[in-house]
């Protein structure tokens, strides 16, 4: 495909048409209510939520992609002026409301962009997704797979969201006298909150804008903005901190639950008694936690013990909207792309996906794990891994400096996602 035709989750380039996989902020960076560069394609649900995030957006630019249907779009070649037809199919990404993966076909071949996705093996929804994907692929070979590689590392093993949701309900039920706060984003984790509401027979408090989103999504009975109606509150992630929890505990016994694929670690700064929380690195996970009794991986069975109490007031439960390593592997076995390009280059553990999956693709496996694309990216990796594990001073320099307020998602996803298809270094 020649350049200048298509951009996915990227808004800075000059393209003829644009695709949005979902409404999380790291995928909309550069998009605004004033944006007018061209038609924007997204799923029906994203289109419904879109004006809420971008009021006064020129809605005549929005184009809906029905999930599971091929759409043909005519474009004009920037170089020759001739007409080109591309076909695109949206597939449920099982990530957050409205999130889709995109499959493109044309004279350029076949490209797939996962956006953020989860690929659970167990649920009925996952089965449907698998069948839809196989039907969509038919006998075509995906030439380039743009992959959500957030957890592209074998140390990231976590259960299905169904199991993690049960664990969260158990934690809440076993603290009947406590108030509960749960850290969430402005979109996503609705199924978890609805499950909590229904299992425990209570409403969940959300902030006013989030209540509007819940209503748009059709959840009318499970949520409230009245604090006196419930002891369970879902709060924005940025306000979820040890400071907040300690303050709340001055008034009422309160625990915090962080639903996240990557456990946090909390430890005191030497001398000052202040806690900081941060990303748990692979090395730390395998060594330090096993020593002090907060095991995350049972050595004998390799099973993941997923709920971790990180602090008097905080539980981390691996309820993740991104695929874990084994799911990524299953997905790649299904798609069998010719090559893969990770879309999360700022991940704390960024590893070139081909390092693990090159053999599955028939592509050459890189010698180095790490994708040395930008010096800045390397620096982030080193800071996370080395400083956190070895620092005796508790300074947690660099990326870790922000303490417990620096959540996993903000650390991994502060860089804009997206691609202009195809990217120059892919072909
Ligand atoms: Zn996302």
UniProtKB/TrEMBL annotation:
<keyword id="KW-0227">DNA damage</keyword>
<dbReference type="GO" id="GO:0005634">
    <property type="term" value="C:nucleus"/>
</dbReference>
<dbReference type="GO" id="GO:0004519">
    <property type="term" value="F:endonuclease activity"/>
</dbReference>
<keyword id="KW-0255">Endonuclease</keyword>
<comment type="similarity">
    <text>Belongs to the DNA repair metallo-beta-lactamase (DRMBL) family.</text>
</comment>
<keyword id="KW-0378">Hydrolase</keyword>
<dbReference type="InterPro" id="IPR036866">
    <property type="entry name" value="RibonucZ/Hydroxyglut_hydro"/>
</dbReference>
<dbReference type="Pfam" id="PF07522">
    <property type="entry name" value="DRMBL"/>
</dbReference>
<keyword id="KW-0540">Nuclease</keyword>
<keyword id="KW-0233">DNA recombination</keyword>
<dbReference type="GO" id="GO:0006303">
    <property type="term" value="P:double-strand break repair via nonhomologous end joining"/>
</dbReference>
<dbReference type="GO" id="GO:0035312">
    <property type="term" value="F:5'-3' DNA exonuclease activity"/>
</dbReference>
<keyword id="KW-0269">Exonuclease</keyword>
<protein>
    <recommendedName>
        <fullName>Protein artemis</fullName>
    </recommendedName>
</protein>
<dbReference type="GO" id="GO:0006310">
    <property type="term" value="P:DNA recombination"/>
</dbReference>
<dbReference type="GO" id="GO:0003684">
    <property type="term" value="F:damaged DNA binding"/>
</dbReference>
<dbReference type="InterPro" id="IPR011084">
    <property type="entry name" value="DRMBL"/>
</dbReference>
<keyword id="KW-0234">DNA repair</keyword>
<dbReference type="GO" id="GO:0036297">
    <property type="term" value="P:interstrand cross-link repair"/>
</dbReference>
<feature type="domain" description="DNA repair metallo-beta-lactamase">
    <location>
        <begin position="222"/>
        <end position="344"/>
    </location>
</feature>
<keyword id="KW-0539">Nucleus</keyword>
